[in-house]
Amino acid sequence: MTFTSTVDGGASSLAVTGNASFGGAVTNMTTLSVSGTSTISANITTSSTQAYTGAVTLGASTTLTTTNSAVTFSSTVNGTTADTQSLTIAQGSGAVTFSSTVGATVALSSLSISGSGAITLTGNVTTSGAQSYTGAVTLAAATTITSGTGGVSFSSTVNSTAPVAGAAVVTSFTTVGTSSWTAPTGVTAVEVLVVAGGGGGSDEGGGGAGGLTYNSTYSVTGGSAYTVTVGAGGVGGPNNGAGTNGGNSVFGTITTIGGGAGGQWQNSPAAASGGSGGGGGSNDPSPAYTGALGVAGQGNQGGNGYGAGYKGGGGGGAGASGANATSSGAGNGGAGLAYSISGVSTYYAGGGGGGLYSGAARGTGGLGGGGNGGGSTFDTTAGTPNTGGGGGGGDTNSRGAGGLPQAGGSGIVIVKYTTAGSGTYGLTISAGGGNVNFGGAVGATNALGALIVNSTGSTIFGG
To answer: Tell me, what DSSP letter sits at residue 161?
Structure first.
């Protein structure tokens, strides 16, 4: 739509869908909006808002005036002939928003924003002469102000937008087997939790928890792939038999060792070492067999068995050793450790409880997915999947199928990183020989990323 002469709004609003060209002054208008490009060659006065969605080109020096109302530029603003057209905005207390560059293609001669309303800059501003900003200025992007040989004046404060914290991204690998994870560009460190599969329970010892390693700042390179392996839980032992160790888990250079299987009732085989050691078996009336060792820094030792009543020791956990069996009952599994890497505090790598032939107390699984022991009057339970918990030890001679030793829980690998935050934008001013005047505080509310002034003139703060 082209207006070759003046426009009197008659106290009405004007909304142009598409492009608009204003060849004469616009007056007596309430609101003005243009959805397409705008060519402005005369002054525009409205009592309310002005909004220019498309690119704006000044065909002549122009003053935009509102009555305490916003002026918004959603795209670029340029002149027609370099260093010739000026732009003055008198918006009272209304806000002025530049969502893109000003003068980047064809520089303006000068820019003056005389109202007291807030000003937002989201791109570079280029003029051949002076620039003045009366209201408080907020940088919504890193901004360079170039004024040729003219001065630059800020009558109020200058701040960056409020910093926005990066978002946490959590990836959990729960499927047994090997895959990979690629570090996003710009990410240099991640938080990682690697838990191996828990050891299987035996007749009678509880399975040891899978080994656990946590690193809060594991170094990575953006774009690089890292091997991820989730270890399987060890198999629970058959009637009168022994279980197997859990599988190892891997992230990059971190390898955690699968939990050790519980010891068989005649110590044949003995409790197995692993991330955490399996609980010892027993042989009524004696001896009681020793629980196996765990890997230093990943887990703990399993508890010892107790002869009378064929009571197995508890498997070791990441946070504590498995408990020894006693005359009162089988040993409890060792407790695991709690981490909040997933967003919720969760225990991992608890040891499996010991099983028993007779007695009033089975071994209970340790916090972190350890399975409960079985036998006597108790059913055995498996380690919880994706916790690395050890399987419960059992005894089928006293309990039948319900007392079978159970499998350890599968492991898990959790990777967490935080995306880059935003909001601390810098300001560069190139004013030639012009003075640069800051009348208000700079960065007092939200610090600038940097402030660089290139000018052979004076730089004045508080002037």
So the answer is: P
Count of CB atoms within 10 A of residue 46's CB? Answer: 23
Per the CB < 8 A criterion, the answer to whether 161 and 169 are in contact is no
Do 191 and 415 meet the contact criterion of CB atoms below 8 Å apart?
yes
Q: Quick check: 372 and 221 in contact, CB under 8 A? A: no
Cis amide leading into 269 (omega within 30): yes
The Cα 337–Cα 348 span in angstroms is 6
Helices and strands (H, E) in the chain, number of each type: 1, 35
Kind of pairing, strands 96-98 and 20-22? unpaired
Determine contact, residues 276/351, Cβ cutoff 8 Å.
Answer: yes
Q: CB under 8 Å to 15, separation ≥6 — which residues?
A: 31, 32, 33, 35
Buried b (16+ CB within 10 A) or exposed e, 86-107: bbbbbbeebbbbbbbbbbbebb
DSSP for 279-303, written as a single string? PP-B-SSS-BPPPPPB-TTT--PPP
Count the neighbouring beta carbons within 10 Å of the beta carbon of residue 74: 17
Instruction: Give the integer Cα–Cα distance in Å for 423 and 418.
Output: 15
Q: Can you say whether residue 462 is alpha, beta or left, with left for phi > 0 and alpha for psi between -120 and 50 degrees? A: left
For residues 106 and 126, the answer to whether their CB atoms sit within 8 Å is no
Backbone angles phi, psi at 400, to 5 degrees: 75, -150
Instruction: Assess contact for 198 and 368: CB atoms under 8 A.
Output: no
Name the pairing type of β-strands 177-182 and 225-230: antiparallel
Which residues of the chain fall short of a pLDDT of 50?
Answer: none
**Dihedral sign of CA atoms 149, 150, 156, 158 in order:** negative
DSSP type of residue 187: -
> What is the per-residue pLDDT for 319?
98
Instruction: Give how far the C-alpha of residue 384 lies from the chain's centroid of Cα atoms, to the nearest Å.
Output: 27
Supply the pLDDT for residue 463: 59
- Strand pairing class (412-418; 168-173): antiparallel
| pLDDT tens string 136-178 | 999 999 999 999 989 999 999 999 998 877 889 999 999 999 9
Token reading at 195: 């838990």
- Contact residues for 253 (Cβ-Cβ < 8 A; gap 6+): none
User: How far apart (Å, rounded) are the C-alpha atoms in residues 451 and 449?
Assistant: 7
At position 444, the amino acid (one-letter code) is: A
Closest CA to 153 of 441, 457, 460: 460
Task: Answer yes or no: are the C-beta atoms of 188 and 222 closer than 8 Å.
Answer: yes
pTM score over 0.85: no
Q: Considering only CA atoms, which of 44, 98, 51 is closest in space to residue 70?
A: 51
Tell me what pLDDT residue 303 has: 98
Confidence at residue 327, expressed as pLDDT on a 0 to 100 scale: 93
Q: What is the pLDDT of residue 163?
A: 82
